[in-house]
Every structure is written in structure tokens, then in C-alpha cells.
Amino acid sequence: MSDKFDSDATTLNRFVMSYTRDHDLVILLNAIATSCKLITSAVQRAGVAKLYGLAGEVNSTGDDQKKLDVLSNDMMINALVNSGVCCVLVSEENEEPIIVPPGKAGKYCVAFDPLDGSSNIDCNVSVGTIFSVYERKPGSNGSAEDLLRSGADCICAGYVVYSSAVEMVFTFRGSDVHGFCLDSTIGEFVHTREKMVFPAEGGKRIYSCNEGNANNWDQPIKDACDHFRDSEQPYTARYVGSMVADIHRTILYGGIYMYPADAKSPKGKLRLLYEGIPMAMIIEQAGGVASTGFFNGKIQRVLDLVPDEIHAKCPIIMGGKRDVQVVFDQYKKAGIDGPTL
Description:
This protein has 7 helices and 18 strands. With about 350 residues, it is of the alpha+beta class. The chain has 2 domains: about 10-195, Fructose-1,6-Bisphosphatase, Chain A, domain 1 (2-Layer Sandwich), CATH 3.30.540; about 200-335, 3-Layer(aba) Sandwich (D-Maltodextrin-Binding Protein, domain 2), CATH 3.40.190. The protein has an 8-stranded mixed sheet, with helices on both faces. Strands 12-11-13-18-15-16 form a 6-stranded mixed sheet, sandwiched between helices. It has a two-stranded antiparallel ribbon with strand order 1-2.
């Protein structure tokens, strides 16, 4: 029996308490974990419960909402509002911020995408949840302004991927990246990946991007993709279309994930607060690079961007140093200054 059952498993709550000694942070991560367990149940029963298809509405950025988008959003909002430790929430599915009533308010501000990649849900492809956590500013009772800050002020970031296993990956500011797998037999997230880092020497040569947008990319991005395909050691193309799935693979296997700015979307397509910043924080603290590519006149770190509104967008170039350097080298050939990694 001892080979099959761990009598001293490190659960999510136990890990956060031992790591931070912060009771409010334990409550917050527990609320997020509870909502993700509920989302897991909904995703796994989507066909039986007739949760496929559109809800007949659009979200804050004009995307059609799936039934599961709406349900997942409600689950996260209910869990976080009633946790007693949050004061303001920002969701991809809500145009305006959600202000927690004073009687239930705490110190944390949470931005989240409740069901990333939901356009894939009807064909049973991996989807996920992404979140970032800030503390409200001194003297604030909780408003959108508390979240309009760069990634330097983000205290915790994470994602959950719903697939053959359900995994939560998160990090605290300045700390290591850790992974937890949902053990359905006990209903708890259990610590399974310690100090996640990009593979040594860059790992597998994989590039991940939507090449259907290639005609609108700037020339250095096109040249980088040509290099990935045509170099002496050609890269493999892998693109799921769910950011959580693509980023999770990139961290574990190596490679690069790109959703660059282009002529059609000059500010990028992904949202900064609940996609760009949390994923950039995880990528960098796992030893990778999280860049905007050429954006607003220069190459920047995603974590240095300051959102001007809660649904601000940003371009993404994320991956291992070896592979992001390929992109930077193409910018240098075009006369654009970029870092050497």
C-alpha cells in the first residue's frame, strides 16, 4: 500500500503555508484551486451536460462567449468574492472590474482568464485558466487602478491546464516555479513538479505560432520563422491555439511561443493583465525570456509594460534563451537594437 499512497503528500495549501506563512495567501490560492476543481468537473462533463456551443454573448474584447466561458467565469467570481481576501477582480469575460462588497473585501486584486483557449472546447482540445495577483495600493479600498501596474508589482502568477491530467503551475514574485497535479481520489492539488526550469541547452527545437497571420507580421518575425524551418537543425512546428497548453509544453520541452504584433493587431492580441504578465513572470522565473518583440518603437520585456486599461493587449515572444535569441538576431539584421542573451 505504501507504494501507491503517500501518507505525507504536500498539498497546495500546505505548500503555500510553509512557503509564505501568509494565511490570506493560503485562502486566496485555495479559492482559485476550488474554482479550478469546479471548472475541471464542467470541462470533463461538457458533452454529457450539453455545455458545448455558444452562449449567445461576447466578452470584453469582442470574442464570442462559449457556454463554458460563462460558467467558468461565474465559478471563479463566486469563489474569489466569497474568499474574504479579494477587493477587486478583473476577468476577460467582464468589460468592467468587479468590486468586492466591503463586508467581504480583503487586500488582493486578481486578474484572470477563466477558460483560455475555449474556442477549442467543442473539439476536446486542452484549455486552461490563467491568473495574476496584486496587492491593493496603500490607502486604496480596491479599484481598477490597483491593477494598472507593471509585472514588477505582481506578487503571484499561475495557470491551470485541463487535459489528460489537471495541473496547476504557479510562482511567487522572485521565487521558483512549482507544479501541482489534481489527485481526483482525494480532491487536492498535490506537489509534483519542483523548481520547474527550461531544459538545459534549450531542449527540443519547437516553434509555436499561428502562421496563418504571417502575411501581417514584420519582416524579422517572418525571417525568424524561415530560420526555424530551414536551418541545419530544423525546428518542429507545434501550435495548439490554447496559450496555456502551448506555454506548458514550451517550459517542459523547450522551444519558443510567439504571438507577435502585426499590421492587423499592432498592439498584439493577448491581454496583458491576465495572459501576458502572468505567463511572462512564470517564463522568466523558470529561466526563460518573455519579450514583446518590436513594440512601441523598441524591444521590451513584457513585465516592464504598464497597462493603460484593464483589457490592454500586448505582443508575446516567449521561450528559451537559445530560441528567443534567433528572433533578436533577425531584428539586429534589420537595424533594430536588441539584447544578447
